[in-house]
Amino acid sequence: MLKFIRRLLLLVLVLGAGFWIYRTHQNVKSVMQYDDFVTETLKSHGVSGNRELVLAIIYTETKGKRVDVMQSTESTEKSIETEEDSIHQGITNLTEVLEYANAKNVDVWTGVQAYNFGKAYVDYIAKHGGKNTLPLAETYSKHVVAPSLGNTTGEEYYHITPDSLLFNRGKLYKNGGNIFYAREVRWNMKIVRLFSW
After folding, report:
1. Where are the domains of the chain?
2. pLDDT, tens digit (0-9, with 9 covering 90-100), for 34-75
3. Class of 2-195 per CATH?
4. CB 125: neighbour CB atoms within 10 A?
5. pTM of the predicted structure, to 2 decimals
6. How far, CA to CA in Å, does 69 sit from each of 80, 162, 177?
7. pLDDT per residue over 106-164, tens digit each?
8. Does residue 133 contact residue 156 with C-beta atoms inside 8 Å?
9. By the 8 A CB rule, do 125 and 143 touch?
10. Alpha helices in the chain (DSSP H)
C-alpha cells in the first residue's frame, strides 16, 4: 500500500511539473510574439538594453493575453486600444521611472517597483536607504498606495506565490499594488529567458 501511495505521489508530481512546463512555455510563447515590436519601440526610445525587462513585465502583467499587455492604462490619459499602444506607453512609463530612479541614486529594482506603485515610490526609497526591500514596499503599499485608492482600513487579500507565502502568508493590501512586483519581474526575466525556445 505504501509503495502504491509513493508511486501515485510521484505520478502526480511528474504530471504537475509537466503541466507547469507546458503552460509556462505557452505563456512565454504568447509574450514572445511582441518581441520585435518591443525591440523596435525600445530603439525609438534609445533604451534598447531593456528588452528582457519589458518582456518580463508583459509576462508578469498579462502573459501577453490582453490588449493592454503592459497594463499601461493607469499611466496615461490616452486610451489603450491595441497591444502596440500598450507597449509604447508601457515603455515610455518604464523609461521615465528607471531614469528617475537613476537620477535619485536608488537601485534599478526600485524603478521596476515604481512601474507598479508610481514614480513617487522612487522618492520614498531615496529617503529610506536607496534600495527596494519588501518591508519598505509593504509599508508604502499600506500607508500610501492603498489609502490613495480608497483602502483606508488596511483590507487585505491573498496573492499566493512562494515569496508572498514566506514573507507574509500571501497577503497584499487591496488597492495597494503588488509589493512583490519587482521580485516577480526579476524571476520572470529568468522564466522568459529559459522558455523562449
Report:
1. 2-195
2. 999 999 999 998 877 789 999 999 999 999 999 999 999 888
3. mainly alpha
4. 26
5. 0.90
6. 10, 24, 17
7. 999 999 999 999 999 999 999 999 999 999 999 999 999 999 999 999 999 999 888 88
8. no
9. no
10. 2-32, 35-45, 51-61, 83-103, 108-117, 120-127, 134-140, 146-148, 162-168, 181-195
